[in-house]
Amino acid sequence: MLRSKSSNRAQQAGSSGPGAPLPAAAATPPVGRPAGRAAKGGRPRIHILPYLLVLPTLFFVALFTIWPTISSLVGSLFLQRLNIAKYREPSFAGLANYASLFQDSTFYKVLENTALYVLGSVPVSIALGFLFALLINRRMRGIGLARLALFQPTVLPMVSVATIWLFMLTPDYGLFNSALSFLGYRGPENWTGNPDLALIAVIIVAVWKNAGYYMIFYLAGMQGLPRDVYEAARLDGSGPVNTTWRITLPLLRRTTLFVTTIAFIGAFQTVDHVFVLTSGGPSNASNILLYYLWQIRFENLNVGKASALTIVLIAVLLLFTVTNFLVSERRSGNE
To answer: In sequence order, what DSSP letters do the residues of 22-82 get, joined into one string?
Structure first.
C-alpha cells in the first residue's frame, strides 16, 4: 500500500514537470482571438466601433451625393417649369425631358465645347504640373520662392482669377495683347468677345489656375520615390530625359491616375470663370455643360430638363472614372 501511494505521487510529480503538456483548462487561447473575448455559443463578436467611425462619412455621402442623385433621377421623369403656371406642379412625363434635351441643337454645341475645353485644359494642366514639379524637386537657394510663385494661383478663388484675366484680356490696354505685340502682333483683339477665341481664353485661365495645384501632387510623389533607383540609372549612363520617361513616369502612375481623375471631374465642375469672362457667349461659343445646366435651371426655370442634364453629367463622369481606373489597373497587371 505504501509502495503504491509513493509510485502515484512520483507519477504526479513527473507529469507536472517542465516537459509535460498543460491541462486543457490552462491551455493558451488560439492565436488571433484575445483571451476572454469569445462570444457565447462559438459565434464571433461583432465590433461596432468601426461602423460608428464610418457613420459620419456615410451620412454626408448619403446626404450630399446619393440623395441628390436619386432626387435628380426622379425629377428628370417629371415635367416642371416654374415660369409657366400650367407646369409649376410636376407632372409625370417619362423620358420626355431626355428627348427634349437630345433634340436641342444647343445641347450638342455645349457638348462639343465641353469636350474641347476638357481636352484643351486637362492634359496641358497636368503636363505643366509635372514639369513644374520636376523643376522644383531639388535643393537650391530660393527654391521655396519658386514653389510659392507656382502654387500661388491655386489659392486664389476662381472668380478673382477670372477678374484678373478679364483685365489682362482687355482689347485696348490688356497685358495679354501688349505681350503679343512684342511678337509682331498688331491691333487689339477682343479675346472674350470673339467666337473663335472665347473658349481659348477660358482654357488659358483654367490652365493658369490649376497647373500649380497638380504640381503639388507630383512633387509629393517625386519626393517619395526611392533614391537608389536614380543612382543606379545615373551609373548606367541614363540621361535626364530617359530617366524621366523610363523611371519617374512609371513610378508615378498612381499619382497620375489620381490627378487625371480629379482634373477631369474638376473640368466638368467649372462655371465661375465662364460666368465672369464670357457668360457662355458669344452665341454659346464658350458655353460648357455645367454653365448650360445653370442656365436651364435658374434662367429658364426648367426643373425637369435640368434634372435630365444632371443625370447625363453624372453618367459621363462615372463612365470616365471607371474606365480610367480599369485601364490603369490593367496596365499595372500587365507589368
So the answer is: PPGGGPPPPTTS-TT-PPGGGPPPPP-HHHHHHHHHHHHHIIIIIHHHHHHHHHTTEE-BT
